[in-house]
Automatic annotation (TrEMBL):
PANTHER family: RIBOSOME-RELEASING FACTOR 2, MITOCHONDRIAL, TRANSLATION ELONGATION FACTOR G-RELATED. One of its GO terms (molecular function) is GTP binding. The gene is fusA. It comes from Rhizobium laguerreae. NCBIfam families: EF-G (TIGR00484), PRK12740.1-5 (NF009381), small_GTP (TIGR00231). This is Elongation factor G. SUPFAM superfamilies: EF-G C-terminal domain-like, P-loop containing nucleoside triphosphate hydrolases, Ribosomal protein S5 domain 2-like, Translation proteins. The lineage of its organism: Bacteria, Pseudomonadati, Pseudomonadota, Alphaproteobacteria, Hyphomicrobiales.
């Protein structure tokens, strides 16, 4: 079976946005106009095609990125293949956004025309910067009260530090929004309301907007000629680029992430979606336009590249695992190079395990079609993989490569969980492990002392949804405890400890002496180990045992048994015995040495501090600030945003539980907040004493 669409006609992109910016609605419209969806699903009646998990339909927020393949005829009459990844916008799911950005070639950043750049917009924008993803901007909800396109343009500059190249101007706003002015063609598009947005009229630019259109076209040309020497020279000589040249320059600048073309419309009212699809073709990259993906040779560890070409060796990245009620576990993968056939044997180079591709599926939201073969640039769902988890590389066993690993954040909140009936214990374990395989920011562990099952994640909503999914998908009812904060411990001063481990009880004894300097690691939260042994007082082969011994006790600090951060250990002296010393003896000695030293090196309790942004009407500012102060919050500043006030604060996570309910009642439901992990900070001594007493079992 030959490739149906050339790789240069592919567009792999996602839609990224703040919660409530209208992302699912926009995706729905895209599926409708590209012929994939016969009935438009509305989020507020729980019928959107992309939001296929039950909770998503109830809550009206997108939780799982679903991958969809669809097709669009560009302005040149040629069909293009779109692979769209729907990403969640709630802050508890940023891990999903980061995973999908990793495998996309481009993205549409959606703004709410009333709110402009919101906190979560900034978060996902920064994630897209990290992966250098070319982005276009769609200013959505132009029909909403308070919609202000020009303020959104300004906020892109002030809040994101990015350059928006305005490609369209809105005609009217709020209930008067009728259409857009195309600044390349210099005409106006007015949508016919009665045709569900399928038809529009191309007319002359309204008289009262001609001057503004000229002004913005000039700005557009000035920005785009700047990226090309020849175009700049011509412009300075008074020669303006023609429309095709403008498009070519916008495409180049977008792909090089120099600027971001900006469009506007209202997806809900079906205005502006088709020009946005044309813009995806015109300005977002195909897999051929982005740099070759870099990887590491599995055997030699040399850096190698894989190009978007069917004739190269197969390489693909698993970016999502999903449980499908009909097929079982599905692994979503992006093929970067080569081609894949159903039944093929591939190697997972991260786990060093062989996998066989049982079935290969093309996904549309939550319906699917079996395919026999897939090519470079495709995004496919694979059934039958046993060992693969998110972030793993799958490739040709004869040409193994490891593509870049994804990095996942550490969870900041944990709760104890137990099944309502004893008989469900095994079922719960199975369900939690399945969910953890799908979502690397969710962890499961067993508390050694209490034997309780502990689940950890990125926030309350994240864990709520996990518990909810267990009930729905795995039929396990569970009881959850109060949320527990992921505290940490550290040391605050330098201490030198000399420790000797001796054991003599018939037969071979054990002997090891170590002298270690422990101090705070100036370079950050990691553990750093150094050996300054000269002259062989500790033989070279025993030194890894010293490091391993210390590392093994870092998971439980001296104050309340929390993992330790930011410790540096330097081995400066020691002694050994020809017969009785061993790696194990030095491991035991260094373990005890650290336990002794940690008590004397100014051990300190640390707590996660969250960056909290509250957006509230002015009437409630005093109450909100007072409440944040009472939660040990440090107010970082406030600013006006339209008629609302934005308050920024750093607040300990321990004091933020159930904050959403308090904020709602305080502001009559009008204020919103977002919260992301910021850093670990020392716990005040009075609070630390309480925490220690609680966790040391003295209370």
């Amino acid at each position: 079976m030959a490739r149906e669409y050339k790789i240069e006609d592919y567009r792999n992109f996602g839609i990224m946005a703040h919660i409530d910016a209208g992302k699912t609605t926009t995706t729905e419209r895209i599926l409708y106009y590209t012929g994939k969806s016969h009935k438009i699903g509305e989020v507020h009646d729980g019928a959107a095609t992309m939001d296929w998990m039950e909770q998503e339909q109830e809550r009206g927020i997108t939780i799982t990125s679903a991958a969809t393949t669809t097709y669009w005829k560009g302005r040149d009459g040629k069909m293009r293949r779109f692979n769209i990844i729907d990403t969640p916008g709630h802050v508890d799911f940023t891990i999903e956004v980061e995973r999908s950005l990793r495998v996309l070639d481009g993205a549409i950043a959606l703004l709410d025309a009333n709110a402009g750049v919101e906190p979560q917009t900034e978060t996902v924008w920064r994630q897209a910067e990290k992966y250098n993803v070319p982005r276009m901007i769609f200013c959505n909800k132009m029909d909403k009260t308070g919609a202000d396109f020009y303020r959104s343009v300004e906020m892109i500059k002030t809040r994101l530090g990015a350059t928006a190249v305005v490609m369209q101007l809105p005609i009217g706003a709020e209930t008067e929004f009728k259409g857009v002015i195309d600044l390349v063609e210099m005409n106006a598009l007015i949508w016919r309301d009665e045709s569900l947005g399928a038809q529009w009229d191309v007319v002359e630019i309204p008289e009262d907007m001609k001057a503004k259109a000229e002004e913005y076209r000039e700005k557009l040309i000035e920005t785009v000629v700047d990226i090309d020497e020849a175009a700049t020279e011509a412009y300075l000589e008074g020669i303006l680029p023609d429309n095709d040249q403008i498009r070519a320059l916008v495409r180049r600048g977008t792909i090089d992430v120099k600027f971001h073309p900006m469009f506007c419309g209202t997806a809900f009212k079906n205005k502006g979606v088709q020009p946005l699809l044309d813009a995806v073709v015109d300005y977002l990259p195909s897999p051929m336009d982005i740099p070759a993906i870099k990887g590491i040779d599995f055997k030699t560890e040399a850096e190698i590249e894989r190009h978007a070409d069917d004739s190269e060796p197969l390489s693909m990245l698993a970016f999502k695992i999903m449980n499908d009620p009909f097929v079982g576990s599905l692994t979503f993968a992006r093929i970067y190079s080569g081609k894949l056939e159903k039944g093929a044997s591939v190697i997972n180079t991260v786990k060093d395990k062989r996998e066989r591709v049982g079935r290969m599926l093309q996904m549309h939201s939550n319906s699917r079609e079996d395919i026999e073969e897939a090519f470079a640039g495709d995004i496919v769902a694979l059934a039958g993989l046993k060992e693969t988890t998110t972030g793993d590389t799958l490739c040709d066993p004869l040409k193994p490569v490891i593509l870049e690993r994804m990095e996942f954040p550490e969870p900041v909140i944990q709760i104890a969980i137990e099944p309502k009936t004893k008989g469900d214990q095994e079922k719960m374990g199975l369900a939690l492990n399945r969910l953890a395989a799908e979502d690397p920011s969710f962890r499961v562990k067993t508390d050694q002392e209490s034997g309780q099952t502990i689940i950890a994640g990125m926030g309350e909503l994240h864990l709520d949804i996990i518990v909810d999914r267990m009930r729905r998908e795995f039929k396990v009812e569970a009881t959850v405890g109060a949320p527990q904060v992921a505290y940490r411990e550290t040391i605050t001063r330098t201490h030198e400890e000399d420790y000797t481990h001796k054991k003599q009880s018939g037969g071979t004894g054990q002997f090891a002496r170590v002298k270690i300097v422990f101090e705070p690691n100036p370079e950050g939260d990691e553990f750093k180990f150094e050996s300054k042994i000269v002259g062989g007082s500790v033989p070279k082969e025993y030194i890894p045992g010293v490091q391993k011994g210390i590392e093994s006790v870092l998971s439980s600090g001296p104050l309340a048994g929390f993992p330790m951060l930011g410790v540096k250990a330097t081995l400066i002296d020691g002694a050994f015995h020809d017969v009785d010393s061993s790696v194990l003896a030095f491991e035991i000695a260094s373990r005890a040495c650290f336990r002794e030293a940690a008590k004397k090196a100014g051990a300190q309790l640390l707590e996660p501090m969250m960056k909290v942004e509250v957006v509230t009407p002015e009437d409630y500012v005093g109450d909100v600030i007072g409440d944040l102060n009472s939660r040990r919050g440090q107010i970082q500043g406030q600013e006006s945003r339209g008629i609302a006030v934005v308050i920024n604060a750093n607040v300990p996570l321990a004091n933020m539980f159930k904050y959403v309910d308090n904020l709602r009642s305080m502001s009559q439901g009008r204020a919103q907040y977002t919260m992301t992990f910021d850093h670990y900070s020392p716990v005040p001594s009075n609070v630390a004493t309480e925490i220690q007493a609680k966790y040391s079992g003295q209370k």
